[in-house]
Design brief:
The structure holds 2 protein chains of 2 kinds. Chain A has no helices and 11 strands. By secondary structure, chain A is an all-beta fold. Chain B has strands at 3-5, 10-14, 19-21, 24-26, 32-39, 46-52, 60-61, 64-69, 74-79, 88-96, 103-105, 109-114. Chain B has no helices and 12 strands. Classes of the chains: A mainly beta, B mainly beta.
Amino acid sequence: DAGITQSPRHKVTETGTPVTLRCHQTENHRYMYWYRQDPGHGLRLIHYSYGVKDTDKGEVSDGYSVSRSKTEDFLLTLESATSSQTSVYFCAISDQTTRGIYEQYFGPGTRLTVT
Amino acid sequence: AQTVTQSQPEMSVQEAETVTLSCTYDTSESDYYLFWYKQPPSRQMILVIRQEAYKQQNATENRFSVNFQKAAKSFSLKISDSQLGDAAMYFCAYRRTGANSKLTFGKGITLSVRP
């Protein structure tokens, strides 16, 4: 258990409304990630963070923004939700094992439906 | 860019039998990591096994083992003595070395286990 929680776990919203998803971790990990999971696509990286206030884009970042004002929280915002953003969203952290390998561990996911 | 391909969308195995899930990848890097993640119906992403590219020895974790063929860029997962709890979606993933490297996922394969 990497101490990752996501909120909300489920959300239904209307097209055009802003939505913020929260990822919270308790173990002071530096690296955090947001992925989306869609059928036929696996998981795709939206944005990531390598420290407080340090973020960068992933492969599917259009329509999303992120913020990280403190180590434990990584927020994903959909400024104006669209139906194409209906998906399951996963937060992940990167942690180094005793063997020196960086591995990613995932939160429980948030199912977002945009109607 | 790195790509990960899982060409079989679904597989089925009889309980107690052995099944092999295939994965191929493309990269120009010589050092990297490969992973298999399991996603049961609970949606939680669970790290099953990892392989360091510089190691020739195939990784093993209890009933799970891999067949890593670096020259062929192939990374298959073998599940021995299959159990009903192994039914899930399985994702193959690639990651370059480095603390902040992102994961690149395949599209996943759905494994069902017949009692």
